[in-house]
Design a protein that fits this description.
The structure holds 2 protein chains of 2 kinds. By secondary structure, chain A is an alpha/beta fold. Helix content of chain A is 50%, strand content 14%. Chain A contains 14 helices and 8 strands. Chain A starts with a helix and ends with a helix. The chains are: A alpha/beta, B alpha/beta.
């Protein structure tokens, strides 16, 4: 018997965090009966059911391996859970990039993020991106949508620079790119336009001193030369004694505060629907709806409060 | 020198054991500490649950150390302590125990293992991050070379690397790279004129496997490299200081649970590897007990190991000749080949920035070597008599007695130790302890690292601080640390018929579940021997599962939280420390409280008579060292999940 999607969705809407693990099990499932229940779940946490966009702040955190993302997340979780008042609940969706011929993955991020197991206000869920481009797992978008109804903060952690952050930018309210001092790649990616400018750029390992400060300076200068003045560039150290974490928390809040959340979420859902549709139906499906531009036009006509499955369904209907 | 590695239960019981062994002709002490002591926790810490007195003796304060050494004249004793992360602390307690006997520290002789890099790579009993750990080691070296001149402050261990799967080339290269990291750190803490002496005090602890000709060549290669390193990198000239000094414990990895009596001849052959040629002969030998793969050895099992050494030394003629391989072209060529391989691998480690920086690289390389070794055994390419060949056997009279052939530690002991340490804390001069720990924190937190941490550590030992307090003070300053697991980088297994069949089963299971099968591999407790868990994790991935592996040292609550949040379909727990009786039911209770219904399987050194109790507690299956075919274990697990699946995503949590 499949889980009761509507009931799980209703619990999330009531901000019952204990419903989250079972909700994620359901959203990740591809069994036909589960797909139906998953749609019911999402219906319960859709903007229509909520009477507005989900209240949680969806933050995408991405960066190259070894940049210190997990250590940074440990410090952020600590700040959110103990800071305040009031403290904030937080879920982390850690997406592992590894993909193997066997399809199996070792999901390693959980081991690197420190949290209190007795704390019901924190949830960490790992998944594998498998072969999907863009660095997200199949269910990441809908999982973030659902969790944003219940948690104050939902982090989507992906690995990589260049490609990975484009997808996470489609999903997240705020995109944070994490780099360590001395990694010239990011600078190059920014200058060459391979990488879109993030909302917040974090230089880790500030305890290294001079090198970190220089990295911060260089990145700030590069962003300025690209005409981007909105991106805040912060240097943090997550190892003891930590520094810059409070500033980062404030900077994230500030970005969220200035954001037209409805506009960003609607755009995210439409981009997600297009992505899911093209993964599911490929080039042929895209041709059947009259091409990418026609698909976008169709999506733009839909109700802004429509959830992701409804948007995909609209495209599929057009496909015939 | 002959000794057996020993210590268990309590300081009092271990003291009696030591005295008995000394009477039987043993000439030194080798102290085994329990895991809480090794990792810096008091018996009443949550993480210590089930581990107190298990694999060695608990020593929480100077009172315990005084009792452990009661009636043993420390000015006449050579004591080897298997202690690493907390080595500075245990040496301090030993120095204070000697003071109590009226023995000045300069008379003390012995060794603290104190090799932290191999803890990150293979053994898992680390306490602090790499950089401050190296500072503690350098401080101990600087202190002992001035004040305890006959002490060997560090014993570079390649033993554990072989246990973790190292090839001979890897064993040589990583041990030498490790020594370089230690000497480079020490060079900054001791006056230049002392460096030669420091070099001379560094000894090694190596492994010897059953391929004993190659193993002997390995030791000759290490002697050559060591001398070269001394001359060229550290400017050592005195030939006495350039000598490669090593002790040995022969291989445990190759000992089998199946037909365990065969381990006796394996141990004898391995002992030959380190005694045959005089030019590379061990200075101290420890032999494991024949039944080590079954559980904790009894005094009689240890006596048997001591007798093997005595037969070699007193009955055979191996000690009567000069080096018997001198002039052997075959041996020379073998040594040359190993040297070449080791130098190349040392260069790779150096490129990573040295042994400290290369820990993740070396860890991944070891996991990979171990995977390859297991593959060869599973495929029959490498023969293990009694395990994958010649498996038919008569009934063994050695393992059929009611006790099952192993020593069992009384569970009431842990409660007693908890009570003891609490009484100790309530009866001491608390303000003296607080002051000493504050001084330790200040010395540790000083960025210029001016003060030697040994001084503050000895003062805290003298004041009556506990093992847990000393460690916590330093953890608060240095931060906590998780070692790399090495599994993320491991290469995929070669596709053979068994493997592709398994992959097919996993993919059918995926259809049934609606999600890719997800397994949590967990190591509860303080046991850091993670080889088994790592290999299970890698094979599960290769079979097509999603694997959550969080490394070592997890509390039951952490495992339960992960299982719930990750929505896993099955949980695999690995324990080798003998604490499964306490920890497995604790994990099952925690899972139950969290509402997780996924089945639990257990692997490790689990005596036969404990299996029924674990099954009763709710464990679905138990695997022991005789289950060497990991692919088969995986198929069991897939079948187990398949049987429980009802085709719904609700599986895994209520």
């Amino acid at each position: 018997m499949s889980a009761d999607g509507a009931a799980l969705g209703a619990r999330l809407r009531e901000r019952d965090l204990s419903a989250a693990p079972a909700a994620l099990n359901l959203l990740e499932s591809t069994a036909p009966a589960d797909l139906e229940q998953a749609a019911a779940l999402l219906g319960e946490v859709s903007p229509m059911a909520l009477g507005g966009e989900a209240p949680g702040h969806v933050i995408g955190v991405t960066g190259p391996p070894g940049a210190g993302k997990s250590t940074l997340l440990s410090a952020l979780l600590h700040a959110w859970r103990s800071g305040g008042p009031p403290t904030r609940t937080a879920a982390v969706l850690a997406v592992d990039p590894s993909s193997r011929r066997s399809g199996g993955s070792l999901l390693g991020d959980r081991a690197r993020i420190e949290f209190d197991p007795a704390d019901g206000g924190t949830l960490i869920r790992s998944s594998a991106a498998e072969q999907r481009l863009g660095g997200l797992a199949r269910a990441t978008r809908v999982s973030a949508d659902a969790l944003a109804a219940a948690f104050d903060i939902v982090v989507i952690e992906t690995v990589g620079v260049g490609q990975a952050e484009t997808d996470v930018a489609d999903v997240a309210d705020t995109v944070v790119v994490v780099v360590q001092p001395g990694s010239g790649d990011v600078l190059q990616f920014l200058k060459s336009g391979i990488m879109e400018t993030p909302d917040v750029l974090v230089v880790t390992k500030a305890d290294l001193g001079q090198i970190a400060m220089r990295a911060r300076r260089d990145l700030t200068a590069a962003l300025r030369s690209l005409g981007s003045r909105e991106t805040s560039v912060l240097a943090v150290s997550a190892v003891s004694p930590p520094s810059g974490i409070e500033e980062l928390v404030a900077s994230l809040d500030e970005h969220r505060g200035e954001l037209d959340i409805a506009e960003r979420r609607v755009r995210a859902r439409r981009a997600g629907a297009l992505n899911d549709f093209s993964v599911e139906h490929g080039e042929r499906g895209m041709r059947a709806v009259g091409g990418r531009r026609a698909a976008q036009a169709l999506l733009a006509e839909q109700d802004p409060a429509a959830d992701l499955p409804a948007l995909v369904a609209a495209l599929e209907q057009r496909m015939g | 020198m002959m000794r057996t590695y020993a210590g268990h239960s309590t300081a009092k019981a271990s003291n009696e054991l030591y005295r008995r062994n000394l009477e039987k002709g043993q000439t030194g002490l080798s102290v085994a500490f329990d895991l809480p002591t090794q990792t810096g926790y008091d018996p009443d810490d949550e993480l210590a649950r089930g581990e107190v007195g298990k694999v060695g003796v608990p020593v929480s304060h100077r009172g315990d150390m005084a009792q452990l050494m009661d009636g043993i004249p420390l000015d006449a004793m050579n004591t080897s302590m298997t202690i690493n992360a907390t080595a500075a602390w245990l040496l301090a307690l030993y120095i204070v125990a000697a003071e109590d006997q009226g023995v000045p520290e300069e008379k003390l002789q012995g060794t603290t293992q104190n090799d932290i890099i191999k803890e990150f790579l293979a053994r898992g009993t680390y306490a602090f991050p790499p950089a401050p750990s190296m500072r503690l080691i350098a401080d101990m070296i600087a202190y002992t070379v001035e004040h305890v001149p006959k002490w060997n402050p560090i014993n570079i261990c390649s033993y554990h690397l072989q246990e973790a799967g190292a090839t001979p080339v890897q064993e040589i290269a990583y041990a030498m790279s490790n020594a370089i990291a230690v000497l480079d750190a020490a060079r900054e803490r001791v006056p230049a004129e002392r460096l030669e002496q420091v070099f001379g005090r560094i000894s090694f602890f190596v492994n010897a496997g059953v391929r004993f000709v190659e193993e002997h060549a390995k030791l000759r290669a290490m002697s050559i490299l060591w001398e070269q390193l001394g001359r060229e990198r550290y400017g050592v000239e005195d030939p006495r200081h350039l000598r490669f000094r090593y002790g040995v414990q022969v291989n445990s990895l190759g000992l089998t649970e199946a037909q365990p009596e065969n381990n006796v001849q394996r141990i004898v052959l391995e002992a030959l590897a380190v005694t045959l040629g005089r030019d590379a002969r061990a200075r101290a030998i420890q032999l494991p007990a024949w039944n080590e793969a079954l559980g904790l050895p009894r005094p009689w099992d240890q006596q048997w190991s001591l007798r093997i050494q005595q037969v070699l030394a007193y009955e055979t003629d191996i000690l009567e000749y000069p080096d018997i391989f001198e002039g052997s072209n075959v041996m020379e060529a073998l040594v040359e080949e190993l040297l070449e391989g080791a130098r190349a691998e040392m260069a790779v480690v150096a490129e990573h920035g040295g042994a400290v920086e290369a820990v993740p690289y070396m860890k991944a390389a070891l996991v990979d070597s171990h995977r390859e070794r297991l593959r060869k055994i599973e495929s029959g390419e490498q023969v293990v008599v009694g395990q994958n060949r010649f498996t038919e056997t008569e009934v063994s009279p050695l393992t059929t007695d009611a006790e099952g052939g192993i020593l069992v530690v009384d569970p009431a002991l842990e409660a007693q130790q908890i009570e003891d340490v609490r009484r100790w804390r309530s009866e001491r001069d608390q303000s003296a302890v607080d002051e000493s720990l504050a001084a330790l924190a200040a010395a540790a937190g000083d960025d210029s690292a001016q003060e030697n941490l040994m001084v503050a550590t000895i003062a805290a030992a003298r004041a009556g601080a506990t093992t847990g307090e000393w460690s916590r003070t330093l953890r608060e300053v240095f931060g906590s640390y998780h070692g790399p697991t090495g599994v993320g980088e491991a290469a995929a297994a070669a596709a053979d018929a068994d493997m592709s069949e398994l992959q097919g089963e996993v993919s059918r299971l995926r259809e049934k579940l609606g999600r890719r099968p997800k397994i949590l591999v967990g190591k509860p407790g303080l046991d850091g021997h993670s080889n088994g868990a790592e290999q299970i994790a890698v094979r599960a991935r290769d079979s097509g599962m999603d694997v959550v592996y969080e490394g070592i040292r997890l509390t039951p609550q952490q495992i339960a939280a992960s299982a719930l949040q990750e929505g896993v379909h099955v949980i695999g727990l690995s324990i080798l420390s003998g604490s499964h009786r306490e920890l497995i039911p604790a994990v099952i209770d925690a899972l139950h409280d969290a509402g997780v219904t996924a089945p639990v399987v257990v692997g490790g050194i689990i005596p036969e008579q404990d299996v029924a109790a674990l099954r009763k507690a709710g464990v679905a299956a138990v695997y022991t060292p005789k289950d060497f075919d990991i692919t088969r274990i995986m198929r069991d697990i897939v079948a187990l999940v398949g049987a429980g699946a009802n085709g719904s995503s609700a599986n895994g949590s209520a």
